[in-house]
């Protein structure tokens, strides 16, 4: 299954006169992180954020909100570097999103930036530069780095940016689970080339060796940036690699779409993390699940002010 992008024929195009009315949409989300059964600390961090041209609001671990009049950002970061530096790295990643992305959005709205692709690329470059600077300035932070997977929700489109081996999955209302992002590792490349299946990739001795990450001594980064069109009933999952270590793709889909009766009272994120930690628990484990729903009232939006391509 291919993931649509704003460069496809189905993408929104600039309109003249009055913008076309679109059905109002809402988001429901849940997020959980767990240190696992072996690690002594949790180097994963996640973020849920709502912002418009006036204010930025941190969101709780679960919630429901209309997509009308505001943008939403959800992100997961997995830190690396040993001792406490990995924990610090993932917190830096999500903290910089809070400070830099809303500011960039306001600049774009004022016509001072060229689009979402540039905004997200510049955001990742700024976080990467901060981590390299801190890693060189403080001995205890030497080699500090982090993965980062980010979803930016607006009416009609989810824009994403990603680096590392955390993941973004797309579960359409009427289709199967799709991994949207590329694992930035040799094993991930082999999997995309069809040279490894899911089982072989999970047991490969170099599965955790990253070719791209924020900081971690990498001189250059090339984040995976793109977009997915969304509609009511679609779901998205952002997770750290610890979640995937304990769950097969088919289990992820089943736990989100058709939970057992005993699990139905839990949030989607809680079901995923609990099951993964029970099965493996060798690593920190984080899941953020976002579902699109109809809000019941019509919204009026124009075309996006920019576009992103993978």
Number of helices: 7
Under CATH, the topology is which? Phosphatase 2c, domain 1
Count of the domains: 1
Number of strands: 14
Can you walk through the features of this model?
- With 310 residues, the chain is α+β, with helices and mostly antiparallel strands.
- It has a single domain, classed as Phosphatase 2c, domain 1, CATH 3.60.40.10.
- It is 28% helix and 30% strand.
- It has helices at 85-109, 116-137, 186-192, 198-203, 241-246, 249-257, 268-279; strands spanning 21-34, 44-51, 56-58, 62-66, 71-80, 145-146, 148-154, 157-163, 167-171, 178-179, 214-215, 224-229, 235-239, 285-300.
- The strands form two sheets. Strands 2, 3, 5, 6, 7, 8, 11 and 12 form an eight-stranded antiparallel β-sheet that branches.
- Strand 9 (167-171) and strand 10 (178-179) form a beta hairpin.
- Helix 1 runs antiparallel to helix 2 (116-137).
- The protein is globular and about 55 Å long.
- The protein starts with 20 loop residues before the first strand and ends in a 10-residue tail after the last strand.
Topology:
Elements: E1 21-34, E2 44-51, E3 56-58, E4 62-66, E5 71-80, H1 85-109, H2 116-137, E6 145-146, E7 148-154, E8 157-163, E9 167-171, E10 178-179, H3 186-192, H4 198-203, E11 214-215, E12 224-229, E13 235-239, H5 241-246, H6 249-257, H7 268-279, E14 285-300
Antiparallel strand pairs: 1-4, 1-14, 2-3, 2-5, 5-6, 5-7, 6-11, 7-8, 8-12, 9-10, 9-13, 13-14
Helix pairs in contact: 1-2
């Amino acid at each position: 299954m291919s993931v649509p992008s704003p460069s496809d024929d189905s993408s929104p195009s600039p309109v003249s006169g009055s913008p076309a009315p679109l059905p109002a949409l809402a988001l429901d989300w849940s997020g959980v992180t767990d240190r696992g059964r072996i690690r002594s600390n949790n180097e994963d961090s996640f973020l849920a954020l709502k912002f418009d041209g006036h204010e930025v609001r941190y969101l709780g671990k679960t919630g429901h909100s209309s997509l009308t009049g505001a943008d939403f950002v959800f992100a997961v970061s997995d830190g690396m570097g040993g001792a406490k530096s990995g924990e610090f790295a993932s917190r830096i990643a999500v903290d910089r999103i809070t400070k830099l992305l809303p500011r960039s959005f306001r600049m774009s709205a004022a016509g001072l930036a060229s689009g979402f692709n540039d905004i997200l690329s510049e955001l990742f470059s700024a976080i990467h530069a901060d981590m390299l600077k801190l890693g060189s300035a403080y001995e205890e932070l030497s080699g500090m780095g982090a993965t980062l997977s980010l979803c930016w929700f607006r009416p009609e489109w989810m824009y994403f940016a990603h680096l590392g081996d955390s993941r973004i999955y797309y579960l359409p209302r009427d289709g199967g689970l799709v991994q949207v992002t590329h694992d930035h590792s040799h094993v991930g490349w082999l999997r995309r080339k069809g040279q490894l299946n899911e089982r072989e990739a999970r047991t490969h001795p170099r599965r955790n060796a990253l070719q791209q990450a924020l900081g971690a001594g990498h001189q250059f980064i090339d984040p995976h940036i793109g977009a997915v069109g969304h509609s009511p009933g679609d779901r998205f999952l952002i997770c750290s690699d610890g979640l995937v270590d304990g769950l097969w793709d088919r289990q992820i889909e089943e736990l989100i779409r058709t939970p057992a009766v005993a699990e139905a009272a839990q949030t989607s994120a809680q079901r995923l993390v609990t099951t993964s930690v029970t099965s493996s628990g060798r690593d920190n484990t984080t899941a953020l699940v976002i579902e699109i729903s109809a809000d019941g009232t019509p919204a009026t939006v124009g075309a996006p002010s920019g576009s992103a391509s993978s």
